[in-house]
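step 4 of 6: structure.
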Amino acid sequence: MSDVAAAIPAAEGEPNWQRLHPATLALAVVKLGPRSLQFLPAVAALGFTGNWLWIVPAIGAFLLISLAAAWFQWLRFRFLVGDDEVVIESGVFSRQHRTIPFDRIQDVSIEQGLVSRALGIAKVGFETGAGGKENDASLDAIALGSAQALRTTIRAHRSGEVAVPVAADAPEVAPAHEDRLLFAMTPRQLLIAGLFNFSLAALAVVGAGMQFFDGLLPFDFNVFNPMDWIDIDEDYGLDQWLLAHRWIAGVGAALSLLLIGFASGIATMFFANWDFRLTREPRALRRTRGLTTRTDVAVPVKRVQAAILVTGWFRQRFGWHELRLQSLASDGEKERDHQVVPFAKLGAIDPVLNEVAIRRPDAGQSWQHSHRIVALGPIIGAVCATIGGGVALYLGNDVGWLGLVAAPLIALIAFWAARFHRWADLGEQVAIRRGAWKPKMTLLPHASVQSVDLKSDFILRPLGLATLVFGVPGGSSLATHEIPAIPLAAALDLRTRILAARARS
Amino acid sequence: MTDTPAAHPTDPFAPDALNAAEGLDPVAPAYAQVLRVATALNLIPLAIGASVFDALLIRHIEGPYGLITAAAWLIAVLVIVTFPSRRVSRWGYKIGEGQLRVARGWLFRTDTIVPFVRVQHIDVGQGPIERWFGLSHLIVHTSGTHNSTVTLPGLHADLAAAMRETIRRHIQTDFA
C-alpha cells in the first residue's frame, strides 16, 4: 500500500478522531485554479476603472482568503471510525455532526483524480441510499491506504464477519479471496471500442474555439475556413491545379474529419476506461477504471433494479454492446446508472447479467410491437416545421427551405424508427426495446416495479391502445420504463402479471 | 384485482360511465366545489388582468375596446361553472386487495396502481379550501422515480384517515 502516513490523529486527546489528509490542502490549491475565474470580473472592473495598482493586492487577498478558508475547513473537519458507525463533524461556523451506521452504508466508493493520485490520497464516498446527492457523506480526501482499509472494515461488517477496527496508522487490506474477475478491458479492446466511439463532438468544440479565437490569433489563418486554404493555394500557385482537381480538397476535408472523429473517440475511451476491471465481491459488483481519474465503485447486487443493453446501429452488426445497471445508488453526479461493461460481445455480457439474476432474451424471442402511432409526435413536429418553413418562405426568408427539407426527413425517420418500439414478457421480467439509431433494451424484472400507470388519451383510445409506464427506483436517462401504444387487453394483462410479482429480495 | 371492464358502457359521455365501467369508486362530489374555488382563484385575477390591459392599451390605440374584457370574463365564468364537475367525474379510485388504484383525466387518462407493499410512506393533507368542504387528499409515496408520489384528492377527511390506516397496516405486516 501507499507509504504516505494515514490521517493524523487530532490533538484533542481522543485518539480515534481523525483529520483529513494534509495533502487535501494541496488539492484545495489546485481547485483554486478554476475558482479564480469567478474573480476575473472583479479584476476586469478594477482595470476598466483605472485602478491598476489594486489588481495585484486584490488577487493576493483573494488567494489568501481562499487558502485560509480551506485551512479552517480542514481544521474543523474530523471524523471517527467506530465499531459500527462513522461519525463526521464539519463546518467552520455552523457545526454539523453526522453519524452513519455501517448497516446503512450501501456502498463505499473511492475516487482519485490526477492530483490525488500524485499525492497518494483518495476521496471516499458513502452511499447511504438517502434521496439526493447532497445527503451522501464523503471524506475528501484521506490517504489511499486508509481509504481501502476503511472500505474493508465496512464491507467486513456488512458481511457479518467480525469487524476489524481500522487502525489509523496501520492500513491493512484483507486478501480478496472471494473476489472474482468478471470483465476486464485490454488496451486492444479499448482501441476497438474507441474506433466505434467515433465522435465529431470534439470537432464542434475545436471549431467553436477557432471561431472564438479567430480575431485573437496573431496569424490570419483558420484551419476550419476553406477560404483560407484556397488563399494558401494561391500563394503557392496551386490554385490552378486545385481548381482542376476540386475533389482533392473534398477528400482532404473528409479525411481530416474522420481522423479527428476517430482520435477523439479513442482518446475519450482510453481516458475513461483504462484498466477497466469488474469484479464480483460477496455482495456487490465492483468496478475500477480510469486513466487520469481512477474511480472505484461498488454496485450492491441486491440493489440492482434493471439492466440496460445499449448498442449502435453500426456496432450492432459486429455484435458489440454496452451494459448498464440501474441501481438505487447513482453513479457520480452525472450518470444515473452504472456502466458495468463499456464495450463487449454478448457472450461476455451474459456472465455479468447472471450475477444480477437478469436473463437476456435469446435470439428466438418473439417480440410484440408498439403501434405505429408512436411516430405521431415527430410527425406533428414535421408538419409544424413544414408550416413554419412555408411561412418563412412566404415572407421572403430563404431559411424556410431548411424547414421544408427537414420536415419529410423527420417524418420518415420517425415512422421508420417506430418499428423498433417492441416489448416481450419473459415471465420474470419485461424486455423493452426502442431506438433505431441507438438501440436500447431495458430488462426490467417484474419485482422492481413500484407502480404501474395505464395511460390512454383521445388518440390512443379510439384505436384500442394504451401506454404502460412503470415506476422503478433509481431512474435512468437511458432506460425507458414505458411501453407505448400497445393493445389495451395486452396492457391490462401485463399489468396484472407484473403486480402479482413479489418484492425483490 | 380483476376489474373486468364492461365492453361498451351505454353512454360513454355520461358523467359516471367511465368510473362505473372500470370498476372505480367516484371521489366526493364536494370536490367539485374545491376545484371551482381553486379555478376561480386562478382565473379571476387573469380576467382582471385582461380587463386592465383592455382599458389601458386597447382603448389607447383605439382598438375594439371591450372585446377582450368580455371574452375573458365569459371564458372565466364558463370554465368556473362547467369544468370542475366534469373533471371530478373523471377521478376515480379503488382500494382493492393489497393495492390502491387511482385514475384521472379523460383526454389524457392515467390509471395508476400502487401495491401497498411498495408504499414508502403516506401523507394525508388538507388545504384551506379543502378544509372548508371537509375534504382531504391522500398522497402515497413510492421509491420509483416515475410516480414517486401518487395523489388522490377529494376524499372525506375520515375516509382519507381510514385509507391511510389500511395502507399503513399493510406496510407493517409486509415488512420483513
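step 5 of 6: annotate
 - Strands of chain B lie at 25-26, 92-96, 99-104, 108-115, 119-125, 135-142, 149-156.
 - Chain B is about 45% helix and 25% strand.
step 6 of 6: archive
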